[in-house]
Amino acid sequence: MTEAPVGTDAAELLRLAVAEPDLAWSLARELLERTTDPWALSVAHHVRGLVLREQGRMVEAGRELRSAASVARRSGDPDRLADVNATWGATLVMDGHARAGLARLDLAVGGARDLRVRSTARARRGYVLSVILGRHREALVDLRGALRGARRLGDRVWEARTLEILSVLYLETGNVDEAERALTEARRIFEAEGQALEAVQAVHDQGYVAFCRGDLPRALRLYDDAERAYAHWGEAPVELGQDRCKVLLAAGLPDEACSTARDLLSRERVHQVNRAELQLYLAFAELARGEAHAALAAARVARDSFLRQRREVATARAELVVLSARRRTGAKGLALARAAGKLAQRLEAARSEDAPVAWLLAGRAASDTGQVEAATRLWATAARYRSDPSSQVRATAWLAEALVRDARQDVRGVWHACRRGLDALDDHRATLGSTELRSLASLQGDELARVAQKHAVGSTPRRQLWWSERWRGTLAQPSTRPPRDRELAGLLAALRANDRRLAEGRNEDEPTAMLERERARLEKAILQRNRLMGGTNGTTPGRSSVDVGRLVDEVGDTTFVELLEIDGRLRAIVVSGHRVRAHDVGSAAEAAKAVASARFVLRQAARGRPVRLAEAGKQLQTALIGPVLAHFGSGPVVVSPTAALHATPWGLLPALAGVPVTVVPTASAWLRARGSRARRRGRVLVAGPGLESGGAEVPLVAAQHPDAVVLRDGSATVEKCLRAMDGAELVHMAAHGRFRADNPLFSALELDDGPLTVHDFERLRRAPRRFVLSACDSGVLVSVGAHELLGLATALMSMGTAGILSSVAPVNDAATAELMVEVHRGLDEVDDLGIVMQRVRERASGDVVGEATAAAFVALGV
Q1: Which of 466, 574, 671, 761 is the most exposed place for a label (fewest CB within 10 A)?
Q2: What are 334-358's pLDDT values in tens digits?
Q3: Residue ranges in the chain whose pLDDT is less than 70
Q4: 547, burial (CB in 10 Å: exposed 0-12, middle 13-18, buried 19+)
Q5: 475, 787 in Cβ contact below 8 A?
């Protein structure tokens, strides 16, 4: 060897290429200027190649590494040449040249004489074989050999690097515990050795381990930690964005996964290996969004890239999207079924979690052509994954088992499989604290529920009710209380300030584009912060469903009606007089039309226009419950509608006009609400700004209840309102409502300092027992995921509020003020919202505007 590099030795300069790339580049440049020695020149070019590769400048990196190899040969040092060849080979593979890269790596391993060089070369080859090419057995031999070598030499940095690569291999082969141990040790070594950047990469990889465990909130937290730390070195690596795409897809957020993948693909300096991966995630996301043609295009690009790179497992995954998208675009035939079957075999041989999805697809394709026996065999193969550690894989496998049992007309087998599949889905949802993520995660269980309910139709009414509640119980799980989070509180405060500035700008007719962008940024940050919240990681309440016997006993003289939709038909299950009956009502689409028509009539009435309320009510009654009215008792009625019918003005139905009517999301929620106890803290009365009525009912109600907390005229701020309503017996909010169909968790009530959103409500320690929302459309919700409803009302009920009064249509302000005074007077006399609203409707009889206003308000809960 000749003169050492300026200020350091070769090993240190090569280490700096990863840890401190700017410094390494500067030292390499100095070295090139001051020496003609081939060995030292090789180190300098080698360092420059590493730095350029990490920047994504692959062509320039290749030129530097070619120069490094050339001068290394002249140096006569085989180990120097082997070290360069190892880096060059890995770079070639990363740029999509798998055959040339592996040949170069083989030269490196075979040509090394020094144990350190041979060990590091084997580690690099192991990385390429495992992470990029999916050849895990060969990779394991290399990586174990590299780890032994690094430990013999006492090279702690390369020991950690090898452990990190091993962790990825363990994950790819399903050994999550071993992966976590290896990665934890690697991170500890990196931190001890001052390898700050590689320590951050270990944090990034720990996020992937969390993802593989199904802990999506922890994965997102670790990715956020890594992204903040990566900022010290500039732009976060593309791999972090790729891993985010995986989490977003698993969380049911394909729109965001699409956006993330497209943003990364728009970068100029993206390795070909990464570009192909991003095209694959884009394809998966487009498929999840229902955009089959876009998915097909992206998947074909990814597949062709993987083929050129000789990445067999990745090619198979891309082919899975191609075949799935082709089927969704209408392709049928045995050729599709055979291709899917062969693909499933390849994925299974690679131990990919996508294998059961491929078997399921193969079965569906065979079923499309009438090949029932073949389809059953293929589904049975997918069903073998019923014990997989991943809850989402188990759910897929149990769906396949349900389809097998369905084909064999084994009804009990169908129910068992669907129940176990929904149990697996519950396990997945239990890890999620975010209301949004739990709602979106429900999509995977929708088909399980539909298969079970289809067979339940021919069974007893009690079994039909049990299955309807089993699925609704999953959807209506109580929300997870977020921990105290100052950052989230700050973001919500910033959103309120932004809202005020936006309102001022619009009033003054000033440009608001920058404020609109800031609002979008804040809303995105709030959503991301909420997604970091973990769940219970335990069995969820939906697991046990409802005790039908207890429900029948609790109903007593009440009539409980649960509506459900099966194959486009609306069905009603009626619990009355200690009996359970089930009936076909009619077309679900016609019922939805009747609800929309009734709400239109109520809007017209609120504006003082002539309407025919009675006629609208009769049409609504015929479409929703006409055939089952004969089985209603004379007492109160409790209705649990489908998501599509949540905005029904039930008080408009003639048969229900003279009885107390309440609405609940599920029978389980009704039973919970009935067990609620009165609170020691009394009423809270809030009047927001800008009301035409000025919140006229608030002073009138306050006069009746002098001990009530009154917030108005500047004191109705978000923080004051939250403090006052926490644990209150009753909260009355007279405020403008803002419903956000695009993002229901940002639906809000306007207060003096800005919007009170669903996210703010979720900060309450204890929800109010009852809540009266006098704003227009405050009870309107939006369906998310598999028919789960999100909005102000459902957020409060999931937090423990027993009863809510809210409107499902615009209302007349003056009539609303009078109605609210009557509501409070009624609650002083009887602790039942249904009875109170019955009396209000009776008093309004004969006054069209009053009748419409009373009909627009729906009592939720008790």
Answers
A1: 671
A2: 899 999 999 999 999 888 888 999 9
A3: 1-11, 430-444, 473-484, 531-545, 680, 692-694, 739-744, 775-791
A4: middle
A5: yes
The tokens describing 587, both together, are 């077309």
Residue pointed to by tokens 């699925």: 471
**What is the spatial distance between Cα 666 and Cα 680, in angstroms, rounded to a whole number?**
28
Length in residues, the chain: 862
pLDDT score for 146: 94
- The helix/strand/coil state of 684 is strand
CA distance 633 to 510: 60
Which residues, 6+ apart, have CB-to-CB distance to 196 below 8 Å?
19, 190, 232
Number of Cβ atoms within 10 Å of the Cβ of 137: 10
So what's the pLDDT on residue 782?
A: 45
Token digits of residue 503: 């309102």
pLDDT at res. 825? 93
Residues 54-84 as b/e (b if ≥16 CB within 10 A, e otherwise) read eebbbebbbebbebbbebbeebebbbbbbbb
Give the whole-angstrom CA distance, residue 407 versus residue 411. Answer: 10
For residue 756, which amino acid is it? L
Q: Are 640 and 579 in contact (CB under 8 A)?
A: no
Bridge partners, 55 (sequence order): none
Give me the pLDDT at residue 530, please.
Answer: 72
Total Cβ atoms within 10 A of residue 766 = 15
Residue 834 contacts residue 662 (beta carbons within 8 Å):
yes
- The pLDDT assigned to 1 comes to 36
Residue type, 712: R
Task: Look at residue 2 in the predicted model and tell me its pLDDT.
Answer: 38
pLDDT for the residue 709? 95
The stretches of 134-250 forming alpha helices (DSSP H) are: 136-153, 156-172, 176-192, 196-212, 216-230, 238-250
Eight-class DSSP state of 139: H
Pair 83, 120: CB distance under 8 Å: yes
Query: Model confidence over 305-330: pLDDT tens digits?
Result: 999 888 888 999 999 999 999 999 99
Compute φ and ψ for 498, nearest 5 degrees. Answer: -60, -40
For residues 682 and 673, what is the distance between their CA atoms, to the nearest angstrom?
18
For CA atoms 198, 199, 203, 206, the dihedral sign is: positive
Query: Tokens at residue 310, please?
Result: 């000789």
Q: Any idea which residue has 């050492």 for tokens?
A: 4
CA 134-383-251 angle, 5° bins: 65
In what helix (H) or strand (E) does residue 773 lie, and over which residues does it extend?
strand 770-773
Tell me how far CA of residue 210 lies from CA of 176, 219, 546, 698, in angstroms: 9, 5, 33, 50
Pairwise CA distance, residues 124 & 581, whole Å:
68
User: Nearest CA to 185 among 206, 208, 154, 169?
Assistant: 206
Radius of gyration of the chain (CA): 32
Phi and psi dihedrals of 586, rounded to 5? 155, -160
Contact 659, 720 (CB under 8 A): no
The two tokens of residue 688 are: 């927001």
Distance CA 755, CA 757 (A): 6
Q: Can you give the pLDDT at residue 10?
A: 66
Exposure letters 331-359 (e unless 16+ CB within 10 A, then b): eeeeebbebbbebbbbbbebebbbbbbbb
Task: Taking each helix axis as running N to C, give the angle between helix 411-429 and helix 446-456, from 0 to 180 degrees, rounded to the nearest 10.
Answer: 150
Number of Cβ atoms within 10 Å of the Cβ of 133? 21
Yes or no: say if 840 and 774 are a contact pair by the CB < 8 Å rule.
Answer: no
pTM for the model stands at 0.73
Q: What is the pLDDT of residue 490?
A: 83
Residue 510 has a pLDDT of 85
CB atoms within 10 A of CB 700: 16
Q: Report yes or no: 530 and 482 within 8 Å, Cβ to Cβ.
A: yes
Would you call 706 exposed, middle or buried from its count of C-beta atoms within 10 A (0-12, 13-18, 19+)? Answer: exposed
